[in-house]
Design a protein that fits this description.
The complex is a heterodimer of chains A (499) and B (513). Chain A is mainly alpha-helical and 499 residues long. Chain A is built from 20 helices and three strands. The chains are: A mainly alpha (499), B mainly alpha (513).
Chain lengths: 499, 513
């Protein structure tokens, strides 16, 4: 294994950061402004992809920003795990930007310049988290991401949006400043550094109650991972414009949470220390509880985005569950689910946004018969649902397959049962949506005027799908299928992580 | 020894006196001339102090730029000045903040400008002297010198309850320093008994090994003097009154520098002179520090006056400084020293910001504001950065201080450190909640609709602070390197005669590299 010194990781972060001033100065010219976002997205994705060959060859890429304190550098280090996450989020940023153009203009949203600027900062922070070489660097950018996304959650500036933003801030910043920071500090006091080391920084540390507790400081301190009971910010954050919910609250932000937890599992504690201290079992039960309970709450939600949010809470714990099973197959399942869930869940959110933009529908009960008017959207929604349930050939099946094998490998039959129960629950809350859309008659044929949430403006006659909105969602739906049929890229990266 | 043979510390310390002489010669009616003279004097002092920073040799813990001449030989009093890695940074902070404080007071004070500026300059002399003095007598003189101008600044140019606040400030500080004087004198005679010489040289006392019982009482006397100054819970009640009544420049100096004298006092006297007592007192001080952190934060949360909130937040922030210091390890003490600087910068900036609001609306009640972001966008941005600095957002100065202090505290005691973490959360809540109520939302008060954004002068005194806020946040090593050897030596001193039983891990592996 060779360590390559290269500025590429920094450039990948800077690509979207440099877009921020450009976006701000071209606030008066929307086309130019969005051009910067798209361009930055392409450049960023290009830089990330250019690192793939080196990583597949088993190398790592490093770049030190500056020395911070004894044993602490602010430093980037690209490995297979970071690259997997970076590929997914930088690619989906491009798609989401195009989608945003359709959505934001279609809905005449205000403060679009601030929106695009904050979006760019969020992505820069996300990539920086993916490439962080140690816990302190990760903490830096984790906090930056929280702060950059607060204005996006509160975007609408209504009391509800402000309440959502407040909750968001309290949960994410509050828990990171207490539990997470404490965790980082304890790791530093034990190891004298916070670097991520293959096999685990604390591999040789003597097992202690302190370290046992510390793992849970991380698990709940990374509240972005939305493990119950620190999940409540996520449903409240759904007041944000849908592209935000799509990219940030299905991909970037929440995945930063689970990504960081997995980092701690793999590279701070290490598999051996985790199993020695019996952390894995306790953590996996917490994840199982979240999986089941998230799904049960999702069942009760009629608001489409709220249902998706609880589904996300549940699905995020698949990733964590896979990792803390501590068996090779289980961990593979957890890692690839970062990608699989990203593509599928973003599709579902894109669909929710499409329904809102074209038909001003937000509740599932209003969706009867919508499938005939918006067939592309609902078809994509169906594909996304299949992936969530884990039906082949959609991407989610790959995850379920590996998770199931992993739980058997770990001799954890209760966990296998949880996976099966969760499949049933997923089907129970996703399939009725598609059924309603395609097979039920519209209850009120008067162009949905009885709709309490549609405020009327921009909604004349039959709802029509907007190309800028429908295009991205079809693309992500197709990818959801494609990575289910050809899962090798992400599986190979996962192998590389575990090697 | 002094390399350049120029008494740079004395020049820096007494330069403001030259300004005072000049101002005395001026007519009291020529306000602008007086203001400019005072401002240029403080700027000159800052410029003169720069060689202290750049010429400082970070590789030794020995005192530098030393001036030592006999003064009153009969009593063994010397004119002894010098700085180490800790006091050097505090000297820089003082000269830096004094210049900005004078600039901030341009339009706020309109009466007796002459006396006001003289007080501020005299205050600067006192503060610099305290940080440079290495002779007990000299130290005590400066300590008292600084008290008087501050008393007048609060008592004459303060708010409606200024007399009450000024007297309270004076009585509290005075009673502490009287105790310290008694302790100094008893030390003086103990020194004579032990070595046969009469001396007030502070450094010689560092080598005096006192019996444990004596150390205990001496520590206690010094502790009271400094704890009042810091202020530690429960000696803090003078602080909110003094802050609320003091004019902006007074608050900036009070929070930025005066409080640091207390914490500096612990580092200069208590730790090296009474090492055994220090170790004995650790649990007690941890207790008070943590109570201060949490209590200060809760009380801040309840304030409806912005200035009072910032004042109580100091109680909480200084609690961290004390916690880090008495962790007695490299991370803790370095963190606590850098946090002294950070607190000076961020809280100083917060007081300046409150002053800007007050000058516009003549009220400090949070409820009077709201929605200012729309009328004052630049102000809103800078205010937010300062808040972020104060709550310790990574990349700004507060973070490194908190991080190091908590690393130190966790090494010393997990339970205390855990409670202190709670304060971090509360700190973020009260500041940002205040920010939200003042800056966000619709404009509820018509008077706020036409407030003007920051003036050039206001930008001029806030931006330099922001530069350091970012600098320390990104490259703390620049400043930590300066103090590293000094701190390592200090820890050695504390541990030197560890006749007491086993104590906690002092991270000696760090001190050696």
């Amino acid at each position: 294994m060779v360590t390559i010194l290269s500025i590429k990781p920094l450039l990948a972060v800077l690509a979207s950061l440099t877009a921020v001033p450009l976006i701000l100065v071209s606030g008066k010219r929307p086309n130019l402004r969005e051009f910067w976002s798209v361009l930055a997205g392409l450049v960023k994705f290009g830089i990330v992809i250019s690192m793939v060959p080196a990583i597949f060859a088993g190398h790592t890429i490093e770049f030190t920003l500056f020395h911070f304190y004894q044993g602490i550098d602010i430093k980037f280090r690209v490995d297979a795990f970071g690259l997997l996450f970076a590929t997914v989020s930088s690619f989906l940023w491009i798609v989401t930007t195009i989608y945003s153009i359709g959505y934001m203009r279609g809905n005449n949203e205000h403060a679009q310049t601030r929106y695009y600027a904050c979006f760019a900062i969020s992505l820069a922070s996300t990539i920086a988290v993916a490439f962080s070489a140690n816990l302190v660097t990760l903490f830096f950018f984790y906090e930056a991401l929280s702060l950059a996304t607060v204005p996006l959650v509160g975007h609408k500036e209504t009391p509800e949006a402000q309440e959502g933003a407040r909750k968001y801030f309290l949960y994410l910043v509050g828990l990171s400043k207490t539990l997470l920071l404490a965790g980082v500090i304890i790791v530093y006091t034990v190891a004298g550094t916070t670097d991520f080391v293959p096999g685990g920084l604390l591999k040789n540390a003597p097992a202690s109650t302190l370290l046992f507790v510390t793992f849970f400081l991380f698990m709940f301190g990374f509240a972005k991972g939305a493990v119950m009971p620190v999940h409540n910010w996520l449903p409240s954050a759904m007041v944000a414009p849908t592209p935000v919910s799509a990219l940030l609250h299905a991909v970037a932000v929440v995945k930063v949470g689970v990504f960081s937890i997995l980092r701690v599992v793999f590279h701070t504690y290490g598999v051996d220390a985790m199993s020695q201290m019996h952390i894995g079992t306790t953590a996996s039960y917490i994840a199982c509880f979240t999986i089941i309970f998230g799904s049960i709450v999702a069942l009760t939600k009629d608001n489409l985005k709220a249902r998706l949010a609880y589904s996300t809470v549940s699905q995020l714990s698949y990733v964590i569950l896979g990792a803390v099973l501590l068996t090779p197959l289980g961990m593979t399942g957890g890692i690839v689910h970062i990608a699989n869930h990203a593509f599928s869940k973003i599709t579902l959110f894109f669909c929710a946004g499409s329904l809102y933009t074209s038909a001003h529908k937000t509740e599932i009960s209003q969706l009867s018969g919508i499938g005939k008017k918006m067939p592309l959207t609902m078809a994509a929604f169906f594909i996304g649902s299949l992936s969530m349930i884990g039906v082949p050939p959609a991407a989610g099946f790959v995850t379920k397959w590996y998770l199931a094998l992993g739980s058997i490998q770990a001799h954890q039959i209760p966990i296998l049962m949880v996976l099966l129960a969760s499949t049933v629950l997923n089907a129970a809350y996703f399939l009725p949506v598609t059924y309603k859309a395609f097979f039920q008659k519209e209850d009120n044929p008067g162009h949905g005027h009885g709709n309490p949430h549609g405020d009327g403006h921009g909604h004349q006659g039959e709802p029509r799908e907007i190309p800028m909105v429908a295009g991205p969602l079809l693309l992500t739906a197709i990818i959801s299928l494609a990575i289910g049929i050809f899962p090798n890229y992400f599986l190979n990266l996962a192998q590389e992580v575990l090697r | 020894m002094n390399i350049a043979q120029i008494p740079i510390l004395s020049i820096t310390t007494y330069l403001p006196l030259a300004g005072i002489v000049l101002i005395c010669c001026m007519s009291g009616k020529r306000h602008d001339l007086i203001r400019w003279t005072a401002f240029l004097t403080t700027v000159a002092t800052f410029v003169v102090s720069l060689p202290i920073y750049f010429g400082f040799d970070a590789s030794t813990w020995q005192m530098q730029f030393v001036e030592n001449v006999p003064w009153i030989e009969r009593f063994g009093i010397n004119y002894h000045m010098g700085v180490d890695g800790i006091s050097m940074l505090l000297v820089m902070l003082t000269t830096f903040l004094s210049a900005l404080a004078v600039l901030s007071t341009w339009s706020a004070v309109k009466e007796s400008v002459k006396a006001y500026m003289i007080s501020l300059l005299l205050l600067e002399v006192g503060m610099l002297g305290v940080f440079c003095a290495l002779d007990f007598f000299l130290f005590y003189v400066f300590w008292e010198v600084m008290l008087i101008p501050m008393y007048f600044i609060i008592g004459i140019w303060g708010g409606p309850r200024r007399i009450y606040a000024a007297v309270k400030f004076f009585i509290y500080t005075m009673s502490g320093s009287v105790l310290m004087l008694v302790a100094i004198l008893s030390l003086y005679f103990m020194m004579h008994k032990a070595t046969g010489q009469y001396t007030f040289d502070i450094l010689k006392y560092h080598e005096l090994n006192l019996p444990a019982g004596t150390q205990f009482w001496m520590f206690l006397a010094f502790f009271l003097a400094f704890a009042i100054k810091v202020p530690m819970f429960p000696f803090h009640t003078w602080l909110p009154d003094a802050h609320v009544e003091a004019p902006t420049a007074g608050s900036v100096i009070l929070a930025g520098v005066l409080l640091k004298m207390g914490t500096y006092g612990f580092l200069r006297f208590n730790l090296p002179m009474f090492p055994q007592a220090t170790i004995q007192f650790v649990p007690f001080i941890f207790c008070l520090a943590v109570i201060g952190i949490v209590y200060g934060a809760f009380v801040s949360l309840a304030q409806d006056d912005i200035k009072k909130m910032v004042a109580y937040s100091s109680v909480s922030h200084l609690g961290y400084v004390m916690l880090g210091m008495f962790a007695l390890n490299v991370e803790g003490i370095e963190g606590s020293t850098i946090q002294m600087i950070n607190h000076g910068l961020s809280t100083g900036a917060l007081f300046l910001i409150v002053g800007m609001l007050y000058e516009r609306r003549h009220t400090r009640l949070i409820s009077e504001y709201g929605g200012l972001m729309k009328v004052m966008p630049l102000f809103a941005t800078l205010f937010l950065v300062v808040c972020f600095s104060s709550i310790g957002v990574p990349g700004l100065n507060g973070f490194i201080g908190e991080l190091l202090i908590l690393i130190g505290a966790f090494k010393a005691s997990v339970p205390f450190a855990s409670v202190a973490m709670l304060g971090l959360l509360l700190g973020a809540v009260y500041l940002l909640w205040m920010y939200k109520r003042v800056m966000y939302g619709p404009i509820t008060n018509e008077e706020n609709r036409h407030l003007k954004d920051m003036t050039v002068r206001e930008i001029a005194y806030l931006v330099p602070i922001l530069v350091f806020i970012v600098w320390i946040g990104v490259a703390p090593k620049t400043f930590l390197n300066k103090m590293h050897t000094t701190v390592a030596h200090l820890i050695e001193q504390v541990n030197a005669d560890k006749t007491l039983a086993k104590t906690t891990d002092y991270a000696t592996d760090h001190t050696n590299n």
